[in-house]
């Protein structure tokens, strides 16, 4: 039904909403995606930087006894090359407890997280005098920091 007084009724398709052409819609989606990517990458970099900063702050609890890399001897072993190393085997450090040497632990994310959360639970007769880190976010930050800073070249 057409009616000159009502332009919307002039054609049966007049009531249908007009859609963007498919090519124009794809171009708009690609543009929006491209604009969003740098922000996402920047946010990821900011998150990583914050994680490293928080990890470095948490490591302050450790550095009285441990070096990140080979350095002056301290109460505990150096942490250089920690990930993938068997517990109680750092060359040049001879003060490991018998319990640590016999633990059979190989340090990775899981074993180190458990140990740093509660050292006496993981190695009951170990000699490390540290109460542990209970806060999960702090533990995550410290692990990320240690992984980045102790990697053997």
TrEMBL record:
Q: Mind telling me which Pfam families this protein's record contains?
A: Cytochrom_C
Q: Which UniProt keywords apply?
A: Electron transport, Heme, Iron, Metal-binding, Photosynthesis, Signal, Transport
Q: Which residues form the signal peptide?
A: 1-36
Annotated ranges, domain Cytochrome c: 50-150
Instruction: Enumerate the InterPro entries for this protein.
Output: Cyt_c-like_dom, Cyt_c-like_dom_sf, Cyt_c_1A/1B, TAT_signal
Q: Which residues cross the membrane?
A: none
Q: What does this protein do?
A: Cytochrome c2 is found mainly in purple, non-sulfur, photosynthetic bacteria where it functions as the electron donor to the oxidized bacteriochlorophyll in the photophosphorylation pathway. However, it may also have a role in the respiratory chain and is found in some non-photosynthetic bacteria.
State the name under which the record lists this protein. C-type cytochrome
Originating organism: Marinibaculum pumilum
């Amino acid at each position: 039904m057409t009616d000159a007084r009502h332009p919307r009724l002039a054609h049966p398709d007049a009531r249908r909403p007009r859609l963007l052409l498919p090519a124009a819609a794809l171009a708009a989606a690609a543009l929006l995606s491209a604009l969003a990517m740098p922000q996402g990458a920047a946010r990821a970099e900011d998150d990583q930087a914050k994680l490293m900063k928080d990890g470095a702050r948490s490591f302050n609890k450790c550095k009285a006894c441990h070096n990140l890399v080979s350095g002056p001897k301290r109460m505990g072993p150096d942490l250089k090359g920690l990930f993938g190393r068997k517990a109680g085997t750092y060359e040049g450090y001879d003060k490991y407890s018998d319990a640590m040497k016999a633990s059979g632990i190989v340090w990775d994310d899981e074993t180190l997280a458990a140990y740093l959360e509660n050292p006496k639970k993981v190695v009951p007769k170990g000699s490390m005098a540290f109460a542990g880190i209970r806060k999960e976010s702090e533990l995550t930050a410290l692990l990320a920091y240690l992984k980045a800073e102790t990697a053997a070249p």
